[in-house]
Amino acid sequence: MPQVIHVAGIRKTYGRVIAVDEVTLTVEEGEIFGLIGPNGAGKTTTLECIEGLRTPDRGTISVLGLDPVADAYALQNRIGVQLQEAQLQKRIKVWEAVDLWASLYRTPIDGNHLLQQLGLADKRNAWFMTLSGGQKQRLFIALALINDPEVVFLDELTTGLDPQARRAIWDLVRGIRARGKTVFMTTHLMEEAERLCDRVAIIDHGRTVDIDTPSRLVSRHCPERAVVVTTRSNTDDDAFSRIPRVTSVTRADGEVTIRGEGDDLVANVIECLSERRIRVTDFRTDVPTLEDVFLKLTGHSIRD
Amino acid sequence: MLRGLWTLTWLEIKIFVREPLGLIGTVGVPVLAFVIVGRVLGAGSAQPDSPIRGFVTVGFPVFVSILIAISAVLSLVTIISIYREGGILKRLRATPLRPYTILGAHVLVKLLLSAGTLLLMVAAGRRYYPADVHAPMISFTVALLLTTSSVLSIGFLIASVIPTARFAQPIGAAILYPMLGLSGLFSPLSSLPPSSDASRTSLMRCIVAEPFRLSLFLTWVWRIVCVE
């Protein structure tokens, strides 16, 4: 796939604070790329450098073959931007905001159709200040899409939203990708990154720690997973130990915890239980997540 | 080049009108004060030797003109600082909208509101004041554009340096009101104490007081239109 964003060794400092330090990454056409890390890790600064809103102290950035600072106005016609914590005028109506944004671009798409697609058609005459958090974010998505952009930037899109609104926004983001757009997003929510992103870059203290698909990051850094089986039968723990790539079997309070590596672990444990006709009263898996990967790579939780 | 200017200007007018307090303060109060004083003192000042004639024909129009200018500047400072603090300017910066288009739209809004306010006052002046109306509309319009633009430039300057919107009104007032005293609007410069000479000849005078001298010009033109 062709690359649409290329970032090489950018650095951005504010006084003595190094916000972004030698960040290098590439984003391919049509993917959802996530920049993940805790608050203050440098995600937004990196994103705003790529959008052309900030000028990096050093390093190079190319978006759709353009320099975001030197070619700012040419680039702004081809990208859509949603900013973290940005607001609109309190008493601007939804349709007025869409109409204003549409007036700024050469070839805007139909604003009414967009509002309909985003579930805001019945709110088109509502003032911005009367919208819920989820509706505001949907409006910001509408504004980011009004110029039919090739790349859409979304900064902490679902922060502060309830789970239902968050899932609705995730569906919208998937819809953007389905239209062939490239999405570059930041989030500190690991579940969001795992569910939405094709690839993620983990960033901490301004530095990229690793970049890959969520599943490959998990496989690479936290390959061990566990199957926990609850049973009243006397089981032969040695049988579990003989399952390929099992690393440990422990028993406590009627629960047998089988730890091992590889995607086949769960299937092999089920097969083992079935062969020995062991009656199981509970069965659960403990699969590592991006949060575990982050903890392992950075030495601290993303919530610290 | 000016893509979005008219849409933004019209939008900002609509948003301003939706803020009742802002509209009352900017348009309602000056016009209402003008009407009330005109009704109370207008007839009494008709005599050439009336002791209040000077106040009605000169002092009060100056006061109301300044009220309009101060109101426009403080309103602009507040709006721009709220936009800056709330990330609205940053959000607009991520679009092809040019910064001068945003500033231009706000200047246009204030110009139109000032013009609207003055038109209402002209109408009130015709009705309540002993005016022999002459209307040099071209020079009046030029004066209006010049003075409002120059006064608004102070507003942009203040809005660009104040830390938060909470400080917009007090800092704006702290800068603007002393300017009135220095500019010679209310009393001849020759009657001011010698210590104020340094201030008038300083950079402050160049940057700050001169727009108010222009306001004095506006007042003079306005007085020709409405009162004399």
Structure description:
The complex is a heterodimer of chains A (304) and B (228). With 304 residues, chain A is of the alpha/beta class. Chain A folds into two domains: 3-219, Rossmann fold; 223-287, 2-Layer Sandwich (Alpha-Beta Plaits). Chain A has helices at residues 43-51, 72-76, 94-103, 111-117, 133-145, 163-178, 190-196, 214-221, 237-241, 265-275, 290-298; strands spanning 3-14, 17-28, 32-36, 58-63, 79-82, 151-155, 182-187, 199-204, 207-212, 224-231, 246-252, 255-261, 280-286. In chain A, the strands form three sheets. Chain A has a six-stranded mixed sheet, with helices on both faces. Chain A has a four-stranded antiparallel sheet with strand order 11-12-10-13. The model of chain A has no long low-confidence stretch (mean pLDDT 90). Chain B has one domain (5-226). In chain B, helix 2 (20-41) runs parallel beside helix 5 (99-128), helix 3 (53-85) packs antiparallel against helix 5 and helix 5 crosses helix 6. The radius of gyration of chain B is 19 Å and the shape is globular. Chain B starts with a helix and ends with a helix. The chains are: A alpha/beta (304), B mainly alpha (228). Chains A and B meet through helix 3 of A and helix 1 and helix 4 of B.
- How many individual β-strands of chain A? 13
Distance between the termini of chain A: 36 Å
Strand order of the largest sheet of chain A: 5-6-7-3-8-9
Overall SS class of chain A: alpha/beta
Task: Give the ordered list of helices and strands of chain B.
Answer: HHHHHHHHH
Estimate percent helicity of chain B. Answer: over 70%
Say which CATH homologous superfamily of the largest domain in chain A is assigned: P-loop containing nucleotide triphosphate hydrolases
Shape call of chain B: globular
The geometry of chain A reads as elongated
Structural class of chain B: mainly alpha
Task: Give the overall pLDDT of chain A as a whole number.
Answer: 90
Rg of chain B over CA atoms, rounded to whole Å, is: 19 Å
**Assembly annotation:** heterodimer
CATH architecture descriptor text of the largest domain in chain A: 3-Layer(aba) Sandwich
Please indicate the percent range of residues of chain B in DSSP E strands (runs of 2 or more): under 5%
